[in-house]
Amino acid sequence: MNLRKTWIALGLLGVLLVGFAATAAEPVTIEFWHRFSERHNETLLQLSTWFTERYPNINVEWVYQGSYSALQQSINGAVVAGEVPTMTIFYEDWIPPVADALLPLEPYFSVEELADIVPGLLYKDLLTVPFNKSIMVLYYIEDYVPVPPTTWQEFYDLCVATTVDEDGDGQIDRYGTGLRPSANPEQFLALLEQNNGSILNDDWTAVTLDDPAGVEALEFYASLAPYAWITSEYLNNNIGYVAMAIDTSAGFYYWETAAEGAGLTVKAAPLPVGKKAASFIQGTNIGIFKDAPAEEIAAGLLFLKFLLEADNTAYWAMRTGYLPVTLSGLQSPIWTDYVAANPIVQASAEMMPVGISSLSHPNYGDMRAALGTMCEEILLIAETLEDALATAVAEIESLLE
Amino acid sequence: MLEKLALWRRPIPDEWRSPTFWKDTAWAYAYLAPALIILGVFTFYPFFQAFRLSLFKVSFTDFPGQYIGLDHFRFIFGDKYFWRALWHTLIIVGVSVPVTIFLALLVANLLNKSLRFRTFARTSFFLSYITPMVAVIMVWRLMYNESFGLLNYFLGLLGVHRIAWLNNPQYALPSVIILSVWRYIGYQAIILLAGMQGIDQMYYEAARIDGASGFQVWRKITVPLLTPQIFFLLIISMIGSFKIFTEVYVLFNGPGPLKSAETLVYYIMRQGFFGTQHLGRAAAASIVLFAIIFVVTLLQMQVAKRRVHYQ
């Protein structure tokens, strides 16, 4: 069966390549929409330069679309207007409204290629493949936390111990950790997954957030409140004000820069483990529009495969703070050498195999907002845990239809 | 009845018989056309489209979507966060508008006197208005910072405990108001200063001859004769305060802790564009905001008829 799928994939790709070769007398330009910051421009251009060296008739035009919200609106607008680019990046929950406009990718990938993608990064219907992925890790300031915690209990104890009033004026001068309930409910979602909890059941027909596992995770999250700086600000912008932080690995650069400026040492460790090790993967995937011209689709598929090659995904990760999205990328010498030379990256590489992604439910945006409100109301004691949870569950239930 | 309504039976104005009149009119419309087209496409069309959107379950990928009547209005009127956003907006309008105008009056009065470095002082006050808003707010965000902000540093020198300006729901809205007042004082002061300099000196001379005190002159002459400018500022600053958004967005990276600084426009943006895409709800909330501003402006116009003194 697997062998047959592989042959089908190779056959389809072959047809595309032949089609591409037939029309490739004219140069083809892939229009790639993204929202990566200026810091990543050089890396994007390097990747597209290498690609064009291999396929001289194909150029990649990187088109910056502003914020993530603006990019999502551009994508939706482009689909409605029928003026789509060749390919773009997507968050999982952006996909359902435009799913019909996307090229199903499974036929173009062999079983081996799909098996190489990091488990947990492949989504329903395979309309996209992962690209820029980061994972939640534990940053800790070594000056305050010499040894990082490995369990929930250790994490809690360290939060208590490192929350201090240094000058004795009755005000806390440094918190054990920082929580960003509405801006980053993924901090709670990582704990939820570690406690074997979930937002919804497997077939998305019922809310499971208030199951015992969910309640227990939420109680632990709430217990951190007295020892946590509760904010919507980026925690690395206030380096030294928190001793530890659950934050995305994409922030390595910012944490290290801030720590250097403050004369502190920041390190990263895998998240403390609950009932199981788990972390939350964030970031976007790439999809190709099926209404793009055939030669652009063919070129886009080649570029997609190019980006997933071990050395290229590793190079992208190494230069940006994201992570390789294939197992071969994680094992490539480029990446292993980089990790060896940069221990701060080690934690995220270790967490990657136990990462989970956000739901690709079409209403996930609303669900996430409800979770953020719940977390915030609990931490700031605006509602009791029971009431806030009940409200969130009711709201998420109303979004299941 | 029909006779009364028969407009076509009214006599045709004489000027209509002149070809020059029609030629001039055609030229006038030709010159107005670019502005009318731009206004039509970018102001009037979106304005009426918002009314339409508020009645449809619409998304970017399903346009115009399904007609659902007043469901969006029912949703927002049943949403506690809409009422909170409205309340926050009313507080901002009720506090920042009068406070800003009052302080601007004082500043304008000072700038109108023969001070040293008067030009420098006038420019300085105006700088807060002409500096790009996001840049200004970013600086305020740093000043408000809980751990290293300038405000807490000075409060610390006075023995006051650190204030979590941006992270405590109690202080979030005052933070927005302080920033808003600071930003618009300079602009309003310049408008008022121009008004003060336009007041005929004979009123002041007459008051001096009558032995009026400085405060009496200010209260009985300066302020009444500035009412056209004050009224203008009242209208534009009230409308501006109802539409406050950027200050909240940049200061808090969100609607503030527990949405404690969420304004109506932020609510609209949150419904329509931030993570969720309920364009119909956003349109419905926009219409409510429009209705509020419209009614308040009409009331202001009525009051102005009695209170504004033109020279």
Can you put this structure into words, describing what you see?
Helix content of chain A is 45%, strand content 16%. Chain A has 401 residues and is of the alpha/beta class. In chain A, strands 1, 2, 3, 4, 5, 6, 7, 8, 9 and 10 form a ten-stranded mixed beta sheet that branches. In chain A, helix 2 (41-54) links the parallel strand 1 (28-34) and strand 2 (58-64). In chain A, helix 1 (2-23) crosses helix 10, helix 13 (333-341) packs across helix 14 and helix 15 (364-379) runs antiparallel to helix 16 (385-398). The longest helix of chain A is centred in the first third of the chain and has 22 residues, at 2-23. The model of chain A has no long low-confidence stretch (mean pLDDT 90). With 311 residues, chain B is mainly alpha-helical. Chain B has one domain (72-307): MetI-like (MetI-like fold), CATH 1.10.3720. In chain B, strands 1-2 form a two-stranded antiparallel ribbon. The longest helix of chain B has 35 residues, at 19-53. Chain B is flat. Chains A and B meet through helix 3 and helix 15 of A and loops of B.
Q: Roughly how many Å apart are the termini of chain B?
A: 45 Å
Number of domains of chain B: 1
**Number of helical segments of chain A?**
16
* Model regions low in confidence, pLDDT < 50 over at least 5 residues of chain A: none
The helix/strand class of chain A is: alpha/beta
Helix content of chain B: over 70%
Number of strands of chain A: 10
**Residue share in β-strands of chain A:** 15-25%
What is the level-2 CATH architecture name of chain B? Answer: Orthogonal Bundle
What is the top-level CATH class of chain B? Mainly Alpha
| Structural shape of chain A | globular
Strand-pairing-aware structural class of chain B: mainly alpha
Cα separation of the termini of chain A: 36 Å
Which strand order does the major sheet of chain B show?
Answer: 1-2
CATH superfamily assignment of chain B? MetI-like
Oligomer: heterodimer
Q: Average the pLDDT over all residues of chain A and give the rounded result.
A: 90
Would you tell me the overall average pLDDT of chain B?
A: 89
Q: Order of helices and strands of chain A, N to C?
A: HEHEHEHHEHEHHEEHEEHHHHHEHH
Tell me about the largest β-sheet of chain A.
Answer: 10 strands, mixed
The Rg value of chain A, from CA coordinates, equals 22 Å
